[in-house]
Amino acid sequence: MSDFIQLHVLTAYPPANLNRDDLGRPKTAIMGGAKRLRVSSQSLKRTWRVSDVFQQAMDGNSGTRTKRLGGNVLEQLTDAGIADKKARAWAHAIAKVFGEVPKDSVETRQLVHVGPEEQQAVDALVAKLIEEQRAPEDEELALLREKPRAVDIALFGRVLAASPKYNVDAACQVAHAITVHRAEVEDDYFTAVDDLNPGDEDRGAGHIGELGFGAGLFYLYVCIDRQLLIENLDGDAELADRGVAALVDAITMTSPKGKQNSFGSRARAVYALAERGGQQPRSLSVAFLRPVAGDDHGSEAIRNLEQQAQRFDDVYGPGADGRYALCTLDAGQPQLDGVDAYGSLDGLHGFVTGSLA
């Protein structure tokens, strides 16, 4: 039976440009007839995957997404004294295992997510080729693994068009985060002063520019299929639970890096609701179809979210076998069956990784 872990998270950001569009301005979306600020799921997943909290918790059980695997092989070979022509041919053969490689290149056309044991196999093969001064043989190029022990690959999946046998179905789905209220992109007109200009003749700015920004309270929905995650990790439930706990930490405590030096907009979640059970998953974004409009966006958003979850329960039956929530705002008492009081991050860890029996 499926065991779905659903996370509903609210995070408040001050003026920021977390995730830019093609014009360098914050991304937006229209929902309920109102413009909202948006952070894409792609931006969020990379933020979590490469964050210190996730990487440290995984400690060798995370992958690397790159086009440059062949380039690294080429560098190792040439550094060891292998002639350039031979080194390029050998690196091309190894890179081709992981994806399409142009004829005169050693880089794959697409990014490929490489698991730690796959990288170790590549490194071992390169060391052997250097030692024996020869090209790789066909049987030595079996470098891919069907179930790599990389939690980020198990969570977010990978597609290898040239080798679909080694594709991994994502166990985690991530929605685009949107503000719970109306929001507009504003422009920051700024100037920079030339430190070596005394201003005797020219008192003008050394540089003039504009930068888009926005601020708001974002709703994020994440769904994890725990059983699929365990299957992706070849049955290792302990590693799967470590991965879920690390992901919860990354979701609640890390921020996209876009323009952080300009805005210092690092934030932590102000509210998180976790649900577990075999019921069909559903987002609670409809709670914000009508934009939050009061003076206390945080408390109103929490109230709307919990009331919407309760309405779904009243109509369709309980949406989860268990629930746990944390809150850093003065939002009063929870208004959702199964949540008697707000807890802590440690408590949330225990809930998402423990038994519901």
Task: Considering the chains and any ligands shown, give keywords for the structure.
2 domains; 357 residues; alpha+beta; flat; nine-stranded antiparallel beta sheet
Explain what this protein looks like in three dimensions.
The protein has 357 residues and is of the alpha+beta class. The protein folds into two domains: 242 residues, no CATH class; 83 residues. It is 34% helix and 21% strand. It has eleven helices and eleven strands. Strands 1, 2, 3, 6, 7, 8, 9, 10 and 11 form a nine-stranded antiparallel sheet that branches. The two termini are 13 Å apart. The model has no long low-confidence stretch (mean pLDDT 94).
Helix and strand topology:
Layout: E1 4-16, E2 28-31, E3 34-39, H1 41-50, H2 52-58, E4 64-66, H3 69-79, H4 84-96, E5 112-114, H5 116-132, H6 151-156, E6 172-174, E7 177-179, E8 186-192, E9 207-225, H7 226-232, H8 237-253, H9 260-263, E10 269-277, H10 297-316, E11 322-327, H11 345-353
Antiparallel strand pairs: 1-9, 1-10, 2-3, 3-7, 4-5, 6-9, 7-9, 8-9, 10-11
Helix pairs in contact: 2-8, 3-4, 8-11
What is this structure, in a nutshell?
This protein is 34% helix and 21% strand.
